[in-house]
Amino acid sequence: MAISMGSSGRQEVSDINVTPMIDVLLVLLVIFMIVQPMLQMSIDVQLPKEEQTRDVNQIPRIVLEIAADGSMNINTQPVTADRLEARLREIYTGRDDKVLFIKPADEVVYEQVIKAMDAARGAGVSVLGAVL
User: Fold this and answer.
1) Model pTM?
2) Dist CA 63 CA 74 (whole Å)
3) Using an 8 Å Cβ cutoff, are 63 and 26 in contact?
4) CA separation for the pair 132, 123 (Å, rounded)
5) Exposed/middle/buried for 97, CB within 10 Å: 0-12, 13-18, 19+?
6) 11 pLDDT exceeds 90?
7) Quick check: is 112 in a domain?
8) 81-105 pLDDT per residue, tens
9) What is the CATH number of the domain that holds 118?
10) How far apart (Å, rounded) are the C-alpha atoms in residues 110 and 104?
11) Per-residue pLDDT for 66 more than 60?
12) How far apart are CA 101 and CA 103, in angstroms?
């Protein structure tokens, strides 16, 4: 509401009413504040502990190398992409530690690394490590 204090008494007031715009702005702000935490994606990361209970040389490490041309090697043994999950399942059957280290070449497409990680998860690997 606006009050005009003039000599004639009644005149039209041409002020902009910003109350509806502020209401819309506050509603949008609340919506974005609620939606923002739901849009964040995360990857679980396990950091190494300082104290090691087992000898590192005692357990053979499984390393999956992905070359720039898309070829893959498991501990220097070649494997195809369609046979990767089955081969990893063979390796990890009967093992207590289900840890796989992935070592991609610098030129590897990110999609190939994700597909290899999906195959490893499908084979029962519980911990994935990155070797840079």
Assistant:
1) 0.58
2) 6
3) no
4) 23
5) middle
6) no
7) yes
8) 899 999 999 998 888 888 999 999 9
9) 3.30.420.270
10) 9
11) yes
12) 7
In a domain, 25, yes or no: no
User: Which band of pLDDT confidence, cut at 50, 70 and 90, is reported for residue 57?
Assistant: low
DSSP code for 38: H
| Torsion angles phi and psi, residue 107, rounded to 5 | -90, 5
Q: How many domains does the chain have?
A: 1
Q: Does any domain span residue 22?
A: no
In DSSP terms, 104 is beta-bridged to 66
Partnered with residue 77 across adjacent β-strands are 74
DSSP string, 60-93: ---EEEE-TTS-EEETTEEE-TTTHHHHHHHHHT
Most confident of 23-27, 68-72, 88-92: 23-27
In a domain, 32, yes or no: no
Domain holding 107, by residue range, is: 59-130
CB atoms within 10 A of CB 95: 13
The single-letter code of the amino acid at 17 is: N
Q: Which residue type sits at 128?
A: L
Residue 15 DSSP SS3? coil
